[in-house]
Amino acid sequence: LEAIGFICHHCDDVIASQLQNSVGKPINSLYDMGQWMGFPYENGFAEKEKQYLALEGQIVVEMADSIRYSPPNTNVVIDTTGSAIYMDKNSLCELKKSVLLVYLAITPNVHNQLLQEYSKQPRPLIWGNLFHKLPDETNEMALRSSYADLIAYREQMYEKCCDIKIAYDIHRRNDFSAADFVEYIQNAAQQNAHWAVEMCRYV
Questions:
Q1: How far is it, in rounded angstroms, from Cα 148 to Cα 50?
Q2: Residue 52 near residue 126, CB atoms below 8 Å
């Protein structure tokens, strides 16, 4: 999108930059953040999760405010994290006042791939209260079974919060360019012109 004139804000990069200042260790990538946060069965995870979400909410609201005061006809995209749905209602509604929320859907096969990658090398992943471990389960077993519940919850929330959903087989097409992406969103937005008011009622 930058190649066609958009100003791009990447939440992960800003979170990593600010997080390393508060934790006192280098955090230069998603995997550095994942290593810092750890797995949901490890000690201290809940506190780190809370710290991450507070920082993310602050950053996203600041980005939304900056867009609101941008010059007219400025094209801006915010690359949020998947945990943006966990922000408080007011913060999420502030974001929706400034931008269209676009949900890039993925398939069950991709979910399985993401779980395998997460098990080997964790990325920052917010679990909320959806990690459960039974007495006879190993950590790996609990991670796998809880992940299915996490994905089901997230997909429900993404569907509820988004203004536009783009199916996986569309946004992953080899010939689906940045210009096609923008055109798809513009067409969808025109078909749903009352999105801002209606969606904020249900968030």
A1: 22
A2: yes
Structure tokens at 201: 């009622």
| Cα 188 off chain centre by | 21
Residue (of 91, 106, 116, 105) closest to 11 by Cα position = 91
Sign of CA dihedral 90, 155, 127, 150: positive
| Burial degree of 46 (CB within 10 A; 0-12, 13-18, 19+) | middle
Give the CA distances from residue 80 to residues 25, 30, 57, 92, in Å, rounded to whole numbers and listed in that order. 23, 13, 10, 11
Which amino acid is present at 154?
R
Contacts of 41 (CB under 8 A, 6+ apart): 131, 133, 139, 142, 143
Q: Does the global pTM surpass 0.85?
A: no
Question: What gap in Å lies between CA 21 and CA 59, rounded to an integer?
Answer: 15
The residue behind tokens 């209606």 is 198
Q: 138-194, pLDDT tens digit by residue?
A: 998 998 889 888 988 998 899 888 899 999 999 999 999 999 999 999 898 887 655
Closest by alpha carbon to 196, among 50, 28, 64? 64
- pLDDT for 91-122, tens place per residue? 888 788 888 899 999 888 888 888 888 877 77
